[in-house]
Amino acid sequence: MKRRLSERKRKMDFPRIESKLLSVSMVALFLLLSCGEGTAPVSIPKKGGLPAADAKKAATAKVEEKKEAEKEEVYSYSSSGKPDPFKPFLQLTPFRGPRSAPLTPLQKYETSQLKLVAVLFTPEGNIGLVEDATGKGYFVKKGTLVGKNDGTVTKILNDRVMIEEVFLDVLGQKKVNEIALLLQKAEEGGEK
Questions:
Q1: Distances from the Cα of 17 to the Cα of 7, 12, 20, 178, angstroms
Q2: Per the confidence metrics, is the pTM higher than 0.70?
Q3: Predicted local confidence at residue 81, as pLDDT
Q4: Torsion, Cα of 96, 97, 101, 102 (10° steps)
Q5: Residue 131 CB-density burial (10 A; 0-12 exposed, 13-18 middle, 19+ buried)
Q6: 2.30.30.830, 2.40.30.60, 3.40.50.300, 1.10.760.10: which CATH number matches 106-182?
Q7: What residue spans define the domains of the chain?
Q8: In sequence order, what are the beta bridge partners of 26?
Q9: Separation in Å, CA 177 to CA 15, 69, 144, 162
Q10: For residue 40, which phi and psi values (nearest 5 degrees)?
C-alpha cells in the first residue's frame, strides 16, 4: 500500500514538475529573445571621473546626437505639381478671351435675370424681344452676346431663344452650356 501511495505522489508531482519546467523555459525564452535589441549598456564612471579625452568624446557624441534628432524633426512640404486641396474639384469657369469691346447692356445681367417676351418673324431671320429685371426691353438676333458668362444667341425658334456659353472645365477642356429662354405665355385677364 505504501508503494501505491508513493506512485500516486510521483504521478501527482509529475504535472507540477512539468508546469515548473514549462514556466522556467518560457522565462528563459523571453529573456533570450529580448536580448540584443536594446540600446548599448552604459558604463558607470568610477569615482575618479572620466579622463579629459573621454569627456570630450562624450560631449561631441551628445552634440552629434542632438543635431541628428533636430534633422529628423524638420519637415517641409512641397506643393509643386499637386492640386490645391481648397479649390473645388469640379468648377466650371467661363472661357474668356481678351476683351476688346466694352460690355453691352445684356452682358451685365445673368441669363437667369432675362425673360423672353416676344418673337418677331422677319425675312432676314427671327428676332427675340428680351426683358431685364427692371422691365427694359432689348432686341436679340443670332450672334448677340448675352449674359455675364459670354453667352451667344445661337437660335431663335417660335417659342424660345437658345443661348450657348463656353466654359473651361477642371482639365482645361472647353465645354458648352446651352440655355433656353422660353417665351412667357400671357395670362388671361390682363397683364402679368
A1: 15, 9, 5, 90
A2: no
A3: 84
A4: 30
A5: middle
A6: 2.30.30.830
A7: 106-182
A8: none
A9: 86, 57, 16, 10
A10: -65, 145
